[in-house]
Specification:
Protein name (chains A, B): TetR family transcriptional regulator
Keywords (chains A, B): DNA-binding
Oligomer: homodimer
InterPro entries (chains A, B): Homeodomain-like_sf (IPR009057), HTH-type_TetR-like_transc_reg (IPR050109), HTH_TetR (IPR001647), Tet_transcr_reg_TetR-rel_C_sf (IPR036271), Tscrpt_reg_YcdC_C (IPR013573)
CATH architecture of the largest domain in chain A: Orthogonal Bundle
CATH superfamily of the largest domain in chain A: Tetracycline Repressor, domain 2
Strand content of chain A: under 5%
Number of strands of chain A: 0
GO molecular function, one term (chains A, B): transcription cis-regulatory region binding
Distance between the termini of chain A: 67 Å
Number of helices of chain A: 10
Largest interface: A-B, 67 and 67 residues
Order of helices and strands of chain A: HHHHHHHHHH
Organism (chains A, B): Devosia riboflavina
Chain lengths: ~200, ~200
DNA sequence: GTCTATATATTGATAGAC
DNA sequence: GTCTATCAATATATAGAC
């Protein structure tokens, strides 16, 4: 495959991400994607003969990106530093790659038909491994004893929320508060939530 | 409108909830809904002449259900009891009404085109009111000082996650752990998260 | 490789018999 | 109120000229 071909494919995939993440697979048309990509529909179909093939490519690339932040959590690091860094990385992904997050959420809502195998095998294996790391930290008394799986779920949920439910977050915060400060506020809030919860500090 | 008519409409709305929540608006066909409802397509269209009208009805009913749990949080109650109850109600909704949760998530992912007005007005007003309640509790030193808006967001995110990302949760927990214990585990975990975070208890 | 024109399939909605 | 038959619009995909 030539360099030109690869570039064209990348333009199409970028346009498809834009459209699929906003309207879902069925809600998106090749016409829309072609327009965003700046080419005609038959031209787009010259590079990707099937609409499904575009989606498939996006999904397989997505999963690699998706597993990366958790993989970086190191067993030999300081527990609080590692967890805080993980939360930060996930929140940065929600801020910088909201379309990927929404594409993933769309797939989940439909029962993950295209990636259920990778979820059940690769993702499960990774989470099992990191849950074991968390359990070790608990055994060592470095973090509170709790359910490591649900801990990971809650980090996913709280961070991805800022991408997937972005409209709602902005509407609720209103014009002033929604204006770009929300990710910094979220970072501060989530750090406190996961590290201390709502228990008030004794006055000092 | 007769009783029969109302019943038929309810059957259609129930079927539409099933289909829309799983495939999204554009991904659902009237044929599918009609089949689930156990009637022919023209017959269904006799009661709802437009596909959009079915969706509109579901959305307006949904929003009422959706605001209820937060409305019940009372300023004159004990803060920890009120917050814990709220989390519990939201988690029960994720468990008992996952389709409504997914319908809502679908709408959010698309930028809430049909309900943005209610989000910006009614939901915002309700959250503003409850954020004020939380702020008062913080001023009184009853709960830790934190961002009340992001606190509410994180309760939404963590509880709805068990409905919206159900496939993933079950796949990661595996056959044994995914088997029905997950909501009880989540309830225990979330209670600890919000009340104490990960700070380990001093040994004693 | 890119275009115009078009084939084919799906689907929302209607017509008209019963 | 419910059905069969069908229309009209949309959307995926292909044919064939350039």
């Amino acid at each position: 495959m030539t360099r030109i071909q690869r570039e064209k494919q990348d333009i199409i995939l970028e346009a498809a991400l834009e459209v699929f993440s906003a309207h879902g697979f069925r809600g998106s048309t090749i016409d829309q994607i072609a327009e965003v990509a700046g080419m005609s529909k038959p031209n787009l179909l010259y590079y990707f003969p099937k609409k499904e093939e575009i989606h498939r490519r996006l999904m397989s690339e997505l999963l690699v990106t998706w597993l990366a932040p958790l993989q970086e959590m190191r067993a030999d690091g300081d527990p609080f530093v590692e967890i805080r860094s993980y939360i930060r990385r996930k929140l940065e992904m929600a801020r910088d790659f909201p379309r990927q997050s929404r594409l993933f959420a769309n797939e989940m809502l439909r029962g993950a038909p295209h990636i259920i195998d990778m979820i059940e095998v690769d993702l499960k294996a990774l989470v099992d491994e990191k849950a074991q790391v968390l359990l070790t930290w608990m055994d060592e008394g470095k973090i509170a004893r709790t359910d490591p799986y649900h801990l990971i779920f809650s980090i996913w949920a709280t961070t991805q929320h800022y991408a997937d439910f972005d409209v709602q977050v902005r509407a609720v915060l209103g014009k002033g508060r929604g204006g770009e400060g929300r990710f910094e506020d979220a970072a501060r809030y989530l750090e406190q939530l996961f590290l201390h919860g709502l228990t008030p500090k004794p006055k000092g």
